[in-house]
Design goal:
By secondary structure, the protein is mainly alpha-helical. Helix content is 52%, strand content 3%. The protein has 6 helices and 2 strands. The protein has a two-stranded antiparallel ribbon with strand order 1-2. The longest helix is centred in the first third of the chain and has 21 residues, at 24-44. It is elongated, with a radius of gyration of 21 Å.
């Protein structure tokens, strides 16, 4: 029931592989991040959260089926990488305070998982990690203009002064601002 790349019967794994785990430890190590990341996505991007979940689920599976080595791939860690990557790159693409804040939180909590995209550990589908991360970048790019940040009235008010009339000088030798 896992993903077996480039074999027609392995396509069922695109849907079932994230639900299958090798043992209880594997299940828990994927469940906790998925709950935290899912909560974060729903909190910061409520209008597109379902699209992010569905696209991440399917794109990760399809990419693994198309490009991974021909062994069975199981587990939801590809989804974890897709959602971390979405949150991080959405902050970069959108450049609003809320998205940048989410990106910083995700970087603080999950920044170390970047090493999981490299081959090295026996029995670990680094391809699921890599293609999940790629899927997250693609999803962030596609959905970057959805769920626009809330604008407040005061943001659109005209300034009381002309910004061009302001002058600020800095003397680097004295390391001070001049009047």
């Amino acid at each position: 029931m896992g993903i077996l790349p480039r074999v027609l019967t392995g396509t069922i794994g695109i849907v079932t592989a994230p639900l299958i785990h090798a043992n209880f430890s594997h299940l828990i190590s994927n469940t906790i991040p998925l709950v935290i990341l899912g909560f974060t996505i729903f909190l910061f991007y409520p209008r597109v959260s379902y699209k992010v979940f569905i696209m991440g689920y399917l794109l990760t599976g399809v990419f693994v089926w198309l490009f991974a080595r021909p062994v069975f791939h199981i587990g939801a860690s590809g989804l974890v990488y897709a959602y971390v990557s979405f949150l991080f790159f959405n902050g970069i693409f959108r450049r609003d305070n809320k998205s940048i804040g989410a990106a910083l939180i995700v970087t603080f909590l999950y920044g170390g998982i970047v090493w999981g995209i490299l081959p090295g550990q026996e029995g670990i589908s680094w391809e699921s990690h890599l293609f999940g991360g790629i899927a997250g970048v693609i999803i962030a790019f596609i959905l970057r203009n959805f769920d626009p940040p809330e604008r407040y009235e005061w943001e659109d008010e005209p300034d009381d002064f002309n910004v061009d009339d302001l002058e600020v000088s800095y003397d680097p030798e004295k390391n001070e601002f001049l009047k």
